[in-house]
Amino acid sequence: MEIKVSNDVKNLAVDVLVVSMFEGEKTSQELANTYAIDRDGFKGKLGQTYLLQTYGQIPAAKILVAGCGKRDEFCENEARTVVYKSVKKLQQMYAKTAAFDFEAGFDYGKFGTIGAMLADYAFDKYKSEKATRVDEITFGNVSEESVKAGKTFGNAMKFTRDLANEPAAYATPSKLAETALSLDGIETRVYEKDEIEKMGMGAFLAVGQGSVQPPKFIHMKYTCPNPKKRIAIIGKGICFDSGGLDLKPPASMLTMRDDMSGAACVLGVMSALKEFHPEVEVHGLIAACENMASGSAYKPGDILTAKNGKTIEVDNTDAEGRLTLADALVYACELGVDEVIDIATLTGACMVALGTAAAGIMGNDKDMVNRIIETGKNVGEKYWELPMFKEYFDSLKSDIADMKNTGSRYGGAQTAGVFLQEFVKDVKWAHIDIAGTAFLEKPEKEFIKGATGSGVRTLLSYILNS
């Protein structure tokens, strides 16, 4: 989809002119006012649409009236939603060109562009019949700069969703490393297995030892002169999770290609930084491997030694993500950064608690956690803070090691959080659990079934506003 900006959208000869309508108000088009409002009593409630033919009375062949709800409640997130719904309607009509004449009262170009690109998304790489798409849309009453920013956000989300939707046979640890090395404006180093061993990442290496795919530790770095802050973002990079010797049921394995959604998010964020030139040094870290069952797989009861020297008794091989994150967290804390954020499809317990509506978040700095939550709210992603009471660590106590990798089934998301905290030292840290939001089993709101790119908007915005 090509997205343009024009100061004269009313006079474009497009298939459809999309106009905004707020409850109790008229639209910018008299034809729409006559037929939609006066004749048919269209109310303009948020999400409603009304379509009419123009019969040559204006350059556009049709008008689509997009309900925007009450004006005093209309915001950037609602603008994104309305544009999304409008583009979906255009697809159903097989429209190829459209123009948006929205009187939003603010520059909605960034959020409108994101909405249009969300509507345009389809992972049809492996399908013979491709999705129906709109070829070109033009926004009026917006700035070129806002649309450009929206395109960068939209492309970062598409980048992330494509990676997470790819089958595990394609999106291997080596492919993630290759993708990281290809990013423009990013300095990347990929550590191989022997180098990972020398760094003492025993927890990470144990998870990957059952797979024929070699593990890769990926360190991406965006630099700038005199950075105001240094941030490390870590993405869980389990490219396929069979559960290891504690094998998952077959149905639970079907979508385990998405267990690297955190890594895909970090790659998506890093891919976009060069377009914005933030005055922040950003380190993107991924401990990439597969968790497979084989004769060389790590076993329940094994004792692992993490990079910081702490020992871990393997209670369940399917609690592998926290083991890879443990070594990545230690590595991040040694970089001299101000803040560390990890993002992971970590626990089914978080899905039970929050469903697909929100991601869980916890950390050791209240102000940092609140800023991430507020950033998410501003860009349309929900986060809910979970507690990290010290009592949660009680179920992680081991008779033969410093800790176990799993504890009680109660409070499982928080137990995973306090486990990770054991590998954080002298830095502000937040942990984001996107197990429920990263991959959808059915369409929901602005997302089709599959990967959502959860966290991209929030982390990118958080970095840009730091």
List the topology elements.
Layout: E1 2-5, E2 16-21, H1 30-39, E3 49-53, E4 62-67, H2 76-92, E5 97-101, H3 109-120, E6 136-139, H4 144-165, H5 173-181, E7 187-191, H6 193-198, H7 202-208, E8 216-222, E9 229-241, H8 250-253, H9 261-276, E10 280-291, E11 303-305, E12 311-313, H10 321-333, E13 339-344, H11 348-354, E14 359-363, H12 366-379, E15 383-385, E16 403-404, H13 412-421, E17 428-433, E18 439-440, E19 450-451, H14 456-464
Parallel strand pairs: 1-6, 2-4, 2-5, 5-6, 9-10, 9-13, 12-16, 13-17, 14-15
Antiparallel strand pairs: 3-4, 7-8, 8-10, 11-12, 14-17, 18-19
Helix pairs in contact: 2-3, 3-4, 4-9, 7-10, 9-14, 12-14
List keywords for this structure.
466 residues; alpha/beta; Leucine Aminopeptidase, subunit E, domain 1; Aminopeptidase; 2 domains; eight-stranded mixed beta sheet; six-stranded mixed beta sheet; 33% helix
Shape: elongated
Number of DSSP E strands: 19
Number of discrete domains: 2
Q: What is the CATH topology descriptor of the largest domain?
A: Aminopeptidase
Oligomer: single chain
Estimated structural class: alpha/beta
- Please state the CA-atom Rg, rounded to the nearest Å: 24 Å
Q: If you average the pLDDT, what whole number results?
A: 97
- CATH C-level class of the largest domain is Alpha Beta
CA distance, first residue to last residue:
31 Å
Helix amount: 25-40%
Strand order of the biggest β-sheet? 7-8-10-9-13-17-14-15
Shape-level CATH architecture of the largest domain:
3-Layer(aba) Sandwich
The low-confidence parts are none
Count of helical segments? 14
Strand content: 15-25%
